[in-house]
Amino acid sequence: MTDRPGAEVSSADHGGQSPASSESHDVSRGESKPVPGTIFEIREFTLHDGPGIRTSVFFKGCPLRCLWCHNPEGQSQRPELLVNSSVCTHCGGCRKVCPVGTDPDACTVCGRCTQVCPQNARRLCGESITGQELVAKLLRRRDLYTLSGGGVTLTGGEPLAQPDFAADVARRLRVAGVHVALETCGWADHAAYQKLVHEVQLVYQDIKVVDRQRHRKLTGRDNTLILENLHWLERSGTAYVIRVPLIPGLNDSQEDLKAVAARLSPSPGLVAVELIPYNIAAGAKYHLLQKAYPLRNLTFPQTKQEQCETTTSDPLLKPFIDRGITARHY
User: Fold this and answer.
1) CA 40, 46, 51, 52 torsion: positive or negative?
2) 151 and 124 in contact (C-beta within 8 Å)?
3) In whole angstroms, what is the distance from residue 173 CA to residue 168 CA?
4) Which of 118, 303, 308, 321 is deepest in the core (most CB within 10 A)?
């Protein structure tokens, strides 16, 4: 859920949250036992996932199966073995150390094969870590966050697939004075969604498509929970950005965008709507999981992505601009 242009939001903006209510939550919890979780990447010096220079943390696990997902290694919450068969020399070293033989379905993700592969064709994806340990790593860049007005962005995968872990990480960062942004698909239990949003200063909320049946077809689930959580977010006082990934021929029509614009309520917390172009490299990692990319036969017109349109000259922005909503097409 990253590699997308960020909203122009100051890290000083705490989205109208109540510090008193957050602090009472901290006191009641105290320093409880560490909350474990699983991540698959920590990407430093990111510029497009919130204000300033940031570190993006990729949480493993996602309830959706978007046809265009460009982080398939983030879908399962379990650690996985990634295999780049294109560089494999078939030396047999992995088979010699594998405790379960050559059956890939029996793999226990022990990692022994990754240690003996001379081509580095195998690697483990998924690190078990506690919130306390993760935040200790992230705080090493605290001076950089302060100087640049940056912070940490929780992404994935889907952070709300591990709600207690994500909330623990966000709370610890907030208490340490670090700006926290959340990128989410919004498909989560209401209580878990609200708990995590209360711990962050900026939310990037995706809307793939408004129609429930089409949403199920494109992502594997309907969007009832997503729209209900969006309704709450609009009234929460938290700063948020709506992101719409534009997938050619699937959700990028004028009618689709008019439906999104009509669904949004006027809210002081709404910073902008961002239309995100299709990632042409979206299918690049599926072969590492021995999976086929669902949209491998997708065709689309070549478009320039360098220029960010902010005027009514872009017809895709018009439904939002007509409603007085700041919108950008990257």
Assistant:
1) positive
2) no
3) 9
4) 321
User: Edge-to-edge strands of the sheet including 179-184?
Assistant: 127-130, 36-46, 54-59, 151-156, 179-184, 202-206, 239-246, 270-277, 327-329
DSSP 8-state symbol, 28: H
- At 206-256, the pLDDT tens digits run 999 999 999 999 999 999 999 999 999 999 999 999 999 999 999 999 999
The pLDDT value recorded for residue 13 is: 41
pLDDT computed for residue 103 by the predictor: 78
What is the rounded CA–CA span in Å between residue 287 and residue 293?
A: 8
Token reading at 94: 């992995």
- For residues 234 and 82, the answer to whether their CB atoms sit within 8 Å is no
- Sheet strands (E) in the chain: 36-46, 54-59, 80-83, 122-125, 127-130, 151-156, 179-184, 202-206, 239-246, 270-277, 327-329
What is d(CA 26, CA 19) in angstroms, rounded to the nearest whole number? 11
Query: 63: which DSSP letter?
Result: S
Residues 182, 186, 188, 191, CA torsion sign: positive
End-to-end C-alpha distance for the chain, whole angstroms: 15
pLDDT digits (tens, 9 = 90+) for 6-29: 444 544 443 333 333 333 344 334
Could you tell me how far CA 21 lies from the centroid of its own chain?
Answer: 26
C-alpha separations of 266 from 52, 285, 306 in Å = 27, 39, 29
Radius of gyration of the chain (CA): 21
Token pair recorded at residue 122: 């195998």
User: In terms of Cα–Cα distance, which of 87, 90, 124 is closest to 108?
Assistant: 124
Tokens coding 154: 């929780």
Short-list 183, 59, 184, 64, CA closest to 127: 59
Task: Name the one residue in this structure whose structure tokens are 């614009």.
Answer: 261
Identify the CA nearest to 164 among candidates 294, 251, 77: 77
Is the pLDDT confidence value at 145 over 60?
A: yes
Q: Are the C-beta atoms of 49 and 155 separated by less than 8 Å? A: yes
